[in-house]
């Protein structure tokens, strides 16, 4: 694709005009295509020796391309630090293959965040009537935590932690987001609450107010 064709012609050729020049270029392109095809067949027969003698362009050889034209690839060999909480919000549904042995043991968890893989969860973690009435839980949000992901499996393995409620409601959606990002939103312990002023209503003293910057 990177071959440049140069046409040389004398004064007699110029008299025939631009049409004659285009015809010449068309014929040269056809000849070049035929020659390239024959050279390809010959290279397939003679092997490496023929390839070394060929001085034509080798654009198909990735080793001859500049680095900026190459797409580097890599393989993950070790997880140094687990930044994700391994918890996700999503929905549960039955497996498609009802005749498989896995259908009797697991359900499929589909996360709302598409960056998180789908997860096999035990049926024991699902509601008792989930198998008989799966449509009743089609819009129910659940929290699932990934516990394993085998190399030979397309899906991870996890456990259902809790049911949040109906999708679209503010409280279940908010709790799911906080859980996914590992934010502790549980109630403060009595020890923490004892650190707060006990005499209510509490006001800032004039001496303390003089040392503070008022942002009200």
TrEMBL record:
Single biological process term from Gene Ontology: mRNA catabolic process
Cell wall biogenesis/degradation recorded as keyword: no
A cellular component annotation (GO) from this entry: P-body
Domain CSD2: from-to ranges: 107-182
Chief localisation class: cytoplasm
PANTHER family: DIS3-LIKE EXONUCLEASE 2 (PTHR23355:SF9), RIBONUCLEASE (PTHR23355)
SUPFAM superfamilies in the cross-refs: Nucleic acid-binding proteins
Classification lineage: Eukaryota, Metazoa, Chordata, Craniata, Vertebrata
Protein name, entry field: DI3L2 exonuclease
Keyword RNA-binding among record annotations: yes
Keywords: Cytoplasm, Exonuclease, Hydrolase, Magnesium, Metal-binding, Nuclease, RNA-binding
Coiled coil: none
Transmembrane segments: none
Gene Ontology molecular function, alphabetical: 3'-5'-RNA exonuclease activity; metal ion binding; poly(U) RNA binding
Subcellular location as annotated: Cytoplasm
């Amino acid at each position: 694709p990177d071959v440049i064709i140069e046409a040389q012609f004398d004064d007699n050729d110029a008299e025939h005009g631009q049409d004659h020049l285009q015809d010449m270029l068309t014929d040269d392109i056809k000849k070049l295509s035929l020659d390239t095809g024959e050279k390809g067949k010959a290279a397939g027969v003679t092997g490496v020796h023929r390839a070394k003698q060929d001085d034509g362009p080798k654009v198909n050889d990735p080793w001859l391309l500049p680095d900026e034209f190459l797409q580097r690839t890599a393989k993950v060999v070790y997880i140094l630090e687990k930044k994700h909480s391994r918890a996700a919000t999503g929905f549960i549904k039955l497996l498609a293959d009802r005749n498989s042995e896995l259908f009797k043991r697991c359900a499929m968890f589909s996360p709302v965040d598409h960056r998180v893989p789908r997860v096999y969860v035990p049926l024991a973690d699902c509601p008792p009537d989930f198998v008989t009435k799966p449509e009743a839980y089609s819009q129910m949000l659940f929290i699932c935590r990934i516990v394993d992901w085998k190399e030979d499996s397309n899906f991870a393995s996890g456990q259902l932690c809790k049911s949040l409620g109906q999708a679209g409601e503010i409280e279940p959606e908010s709790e799911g987001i906080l859980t996914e990002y590992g934010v502790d939103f549980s109630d403060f312990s009595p020890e923490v609450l004892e650190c707060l002023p006990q005499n209510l209503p509490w006001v800032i003293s004039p001496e303390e107010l003089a040392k503070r910057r008022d942002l009200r």
